Every structure is written in C-alpha cells, then in structure tokens.
C-alpha cells in the first residue's frame, strides 16, 4: 500500500467542504449529473457526511495556531492487492507504538 500526500490547493486556500465534495461525488462527463463517487468510510468521530465539513472546521477553529487545517492523503494499493472491507476500514487506525507527527 502507498499513501501519497496531495499538494495544497492552487489558490492557497483550504476548504473542508470542497475536499469532502471532491472525495464524495463526481460529475458525469456526458450528462453533467453529480453522482456519488463510491463507498465512503467516515471516522467514528464524525456524525455524518453531511455535517463532516462543519465538524472539522469547528475543531480547527478551536486552535488559533492552525493556519491550513486541511490535510489530504490517499491510500493506494498496488495492482493485484485486494484488501478486504475490514482491512481498508481499519487502515486509519494507528499501529501500536506508531509515532505521530506533532
């Protein structure tokens, strides 16, 4: 598994709502219809996809030192890797003894 970190937005702004929309929906190139992108796994700390952006913005606003709170990384599997749903749902859990960046 690879976990590339996405760059910042070209306009230098961060938006939880824009990231949520980008991850959760796509535009059909033929009809222009907005449709769900695929299956969404939310952190147990979030109430719903509909409230996720507001919840995350609220938490970020609690710390005045946070200038750009949106951090996006992707989980990518190598060709042929087929994790089970249980494996990919648990991938965001820290490993025992893992160091976190502060």
Structure in a nutshell:
The protein has 102 residues and is mainly alpha-helical. Helix content is 26%, strand content 6%.
Essential attributes:
3 helices, 6% strand, 102 residues, two-stranded antiparallel sheet, mainly alpha, globular
Secondary-structure blueprint:
Blueprint: H1 16-24, E1 25-27, E2 34-36, H2 49-61, H3 85-89
Explained architecture:
By secondary structure, the chain is mostly helical. It has one domain. The protein is about 25% helix and about 5% strand. It has a two-stranded antiparallel sheet with strand order 1-2. Strand 1 (about 25) and strand 2 form a beta hairpin. It is globular and about 45 Å long. The chain starts with 15 loop residues before the first helix and ends in a 13-residue tail after the last helix.
Query: Total domains, how many?
Result: 1
Main beta-sheet strand count, sense and barrel state: 2 strands, antiparallel
Q: Which percent range describes the beta-strand content? A: 5-15%
Element-level helix/strand string: HEEHH
Low-confidence region ranges:
none
Helix vs. strand class: mainly alpha
